[in-house]
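Recap quiz, item 2
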Amino acid sequence: MLKIGIIGAGRIGKVHLESITYHVPNATVTAVADPFLNEETRAYIASFGVENIYTDYHAILDDPSVDAVLVCSSTDTHAAISVEAIEAGKHVFCEKPVDHSLAKIQAVADALERRPGVKFQVGFNRRFDHNFAAVRKAYDDGKIGEAHILKITSRDPEPPNPAYIKVSGGMFLDMTIHDFDMACFLTNSDVEEVYVNAAVLVDPAIGEQGDVDTAIISMKMANGALAVIDNSRRAAYGYDQRAELFGSKGMVATANDTLSTAVLSNAEGVTGEKPLFFFLERYMGSFSEEMRQFVAACENDTPVPVGIHAGFQSVQIALAAKKSVQERRPVKLSEIQ
Amino acid sequence: MLKIGIIGAGRIGKVHLESITYHVPNATVTAVADPFLNEETRAYIASFGVENIYTDYHAILDDPSVDAVLVCSSTDTHAAISVEAIEAGKHVFCEKPVDHSLAKIQAVADALERRPGVKFQVGFNRRFDHNFAAVRKAYDDGKIGEAHILKITSRDPEPPNPAYIKVSGGMFLDMTIHDFDMACFLTNSDVEEVYVNAAVLVDPAIGEQGDVDTAIISMKMANGALAVIDNSRRAAYGYDQRAELFGSKGMVATANDTLSTAVLSNAEGVTGEKPLFFFLERYMGSFSEEMRQFVAACENDTPVPVGIHAGFQSVQIALAAKKSVQERRPVKLSEIQ
Amino acid sequence: MLKIGIIGAGRIGKVHLESITYHVPNATVTAVADPFLNEETRAYIASFGVENIYTDYHAILDDPSVDAVLVCSSTDTHAAISVEAIEAGKHVFCEKPVDHSLAKIQAVADALERRPGVKFQVGFNRRFDHNFAAVRKAYDDGKIGEAHILKITSRDPEPPNPAYIKVSGGMFLDMTIHDFDMACFLTNSDVEEVYVNAAVLVDPAIGEQGDVDTAIISMKMANGALAVIDNSRRAAYGYDQRAELFGSKGMVATANDTLSTAVLSNAEGVTGEKPLFFFLERYMGSFSEEMRQFVAACENDTPVPVGIHAGFQSVQIALAAKKSVQERRPVKLSEIQ
Amino acid sequence: MLKIGIIGAGRIGKVHLESITYHVPNATVTAVADPFLNEETRAYIASFGVENIYTDYHAILDDPSVDAVLVCSSTDTHAAISVEAIEAGKHVFCEKPVDHSLAKIQAVADALERRPGVKFQVGFNRRFDHNFAAVRKAYDDGKIGEAHILKITSRDPEPPNPAYIKVSGGMFLDMTIHDFDMACFLTNSDVEEVYVNAAVLVDPAIGEQGDVDTAIISMKMANGALAVIDNSRRAAYGYDQRAELFGSKGMVATANDTLSTAVLSNAEGVTGEKPLFFFLERYMGSFSEEMRQFVAACENDTPVPVGIHAGFQSVQIALAAKKSVQERRPVKLSEIQ
């Protein structure tokens, strides 16, 4: 039974608390730390049978009975806490992005080099989604041959508060970062070059923050495939999350998930349901699965499914994308250090 | 917090134990009874924190702290245990069918009349399935107008062991009984008359047991709608569970659920996934939902969503269907008492 | 080049005139006869280069240069004209139903026995529809194994004028007759027994004419398969024409045709187009194909694809269906002579 | 009745001959010219009732009874013949591309300026396809609001003979040119800038000809929308022709056409048909419709639906795309003159 401490009791921390309790055998959450705990949150955490609730996460790191920690704090603290946890000999599951600075992510990688027994997994949950996993499996099984073209559609149902942009680092770092990781995952390849065609079409206030809200991102993959991501901060019909991988022997493509398969035919047309609303509805299953695999890697001392390289590269691609928008040219990843 | 005792620790009893533990707030399983407990099952039950494990279910009925019981024992004991539990003042959730004998089901109804405060729900879980619930909701919302034609497709992936037929009472009582209840649920109406066109096309051994394995069941509903169910004991592509309700203003129809939306296009064609394998995969969500609603009815003293009338009528239809096959004529439900 | 005369210049006669002219190589329409020709119709016919336009169809039968005739007159004249044409040595393509009386259809069959060189095809155009032909082909190719269950959905977009019922013989003879033929075609088998569950749910005026407008028709096929047809005189979403054939190795099913594949996703849902409006839109391609195959059979002296047996049996099933409604019991085809 | 002469009796010339004869009222082909006529082609042309068959197209231009000509000769002669025909006062329908040289296309535009009564239509038939027309109609009807993202998928079933590349000008001029026109048509906007990510993944011999066979083409439209085209010279599952237009209020998307809607479910999965094989199958209806609209514009003296601007711009985009591949940077259309 892996004993887990959760650092940060915000939305995603609670998701993991619930997942581990209900859907992950062989693991239990014994401690949660958050500097801003109110009574409601304390009661919520206690209702899951968590014995230790702290405001200072060091209490978790100092507890020898804790095997692994989940770093679910604010992004700017991910890297530093991860390094501390690694040095304390705890396995680490760190939410994405690891940091906005490649240097800080590298510092985590360096810490891991010094503690080879420690597991470190990045929270790219979409790799564990049933649809995207089926695309990768079809590819791995040779069903589509060599990868030629990857297309990812990723559109949010609603734009964020423009004030959030400053904190998040912008669309490429807070939203597309998942798609960058998907591009690598689905083609099983790194990215070599990025070109972005972007605009502010959804909300001028986003433009005033120096960011974009609509983009077509064209990439060259290291294995020769071409990839394209299209993003929008607002799809009127909801959360649009699809992928299509085309290769020498065929194509595998996914559609959106819906609450039911019911289709209504009437004088207006033949109407099915909109996609599931947002990431908590759409990807709930993937949050459990990523945690099961993290726990399995810790318990069995096997490689984690999403390591520090994925955490580093996704940010590197995001920074290349930002540079491409600024300089209006294709940018090689090797330019971004 | 509703305290629940489970009587019968077979497959479906375990499903409910897991559902209540993980997916039903405000309820906890405090006792399980089964006369045939082995060590493995005891350990499994204990792993959910169940404190009291008995071989005799009377220990549950005698425990004043238990609020409700789930009757998950063999079908021939459902009615008698239910009557005992009702008389002990426990709320009852009883698996389907309540019994093969209408007289015994009536005895349960009579017991309920004598204990008006006791809740009694029958385990027709498909009413809580996301797809079928969406059909009924569309109907309730007036989207299709008056109901004219209901079509239910219900095909199992594999036939049962022919020996099971004797115990189960045959296809209409062990398989179609769900579809009979669905017909009533989806049209929000009782059944008046049944005509069956049946055959043995899957397995001659089933015919040797005096049963059929393929059927088209045509029904008149009390509200004037026509309904048809088609059944097969074996669909080569898996568990086929669909419904289509056609009315004066339109139609609502469902498709099968699949593990993912991935579709492979290659030289052979454009291929999607087969339906989810069988009822545990297909209907898992509905098992949790029926239990949440049972618990809510007990806690709030509100009507249960599936009462004894549904339990009685579904068996009545099944018996009418058997008579229709024997006598090769339409049979009115009023003939079956 | 087969020289064809068309007897009857109503809607379907015009359809064949256009089909033969534009879509059937090796055939040409040289004569059209209709007792009620107005100037507009004469001009329409002439625009296709038809040289001989008559009011009396005997002029066509007397013309030795005419190889084949299409009998597109009113139903009550089909059989008599067909017999005359056969006796004149003309190949005959006769619209459906051949007659409402089995005796009169038998008279046509008898005439054919006396003239073995004459081809006689019945106008069951749906056999040539791309979707239904694909179902039969999958069956013939062994893709679904033995046929177990056939389901046909056939719903019109609008009910006929109630006055038409008297002329047409009712829903089973004017509408379902196509579905009866489809049942035989798709299972490649005759029908043995029919049971009908019917109602008047669309238009009370249809009931006043002694007919029904909604039906579920359950049939036993001679090859052991079970079949069911569901009919409505009015589907709010348009012309609904689908078939599903289920067998020991799998299932083949069709969807409706639409004008385009465009799907609109917006705040209301994900909406595709309604089915093509009615039979002229839906089945236009099949009218050309049935004519091409008729011409080929005449030219090559090969068997026609839809002979007098299909014409006879479809009416026999319709009469059995009417009897089943009247007597509320299953009716064997052997009862209908 | 518009009298039409066809210049060039190759594949596309024959398509138009058949379309006009069978599917275009108010027009007739009275003359065909081709320098390489063999007996078979002469007989084919004559079978449509064409009276005048020439080897020299000047005979058509010199015939005062001819109202309009279709320029279906080899691409390098399109512009010169068009100018001659315009100067002869004939309406012109010219196959795409008008030329590989913008200067020559401009010469056609200049000729048109001098003869304002002459109609000139470019053969971008896909604008008249039922699916793509439905996308544009949804946009024109305001169903998707402002256009934000356009995605076009265009993949051929088989690569051309590498020798063809030299003649055709390469993928962007022989294949993508249709997609460039679609991008303008579907967004109702011109293109401002193009960036291409391309590779040789299908056939090295294509690379040896200096061309690419796989590409992702990212574009900025003049109306602010972003557009992306993905191309492959070989899709293992056949001709893949889809479009998706996403805007402020929703999205409209199309799927591929198939021969039938039949879907086979068996132990391997749920399999539908592959797309229609290639452009003659997929786009046959659009060839008739473009001709009907050309004839209507000539007869009614109304604007043609696809004018010389579309012919010019599509080539301009193709040349920009080639430059983008060579120089590995985004290229503005204003750079290409």
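The longest helix of chain A spans residues 308-327.
The radius of gyration of chain A is 20 Å.
End of item.
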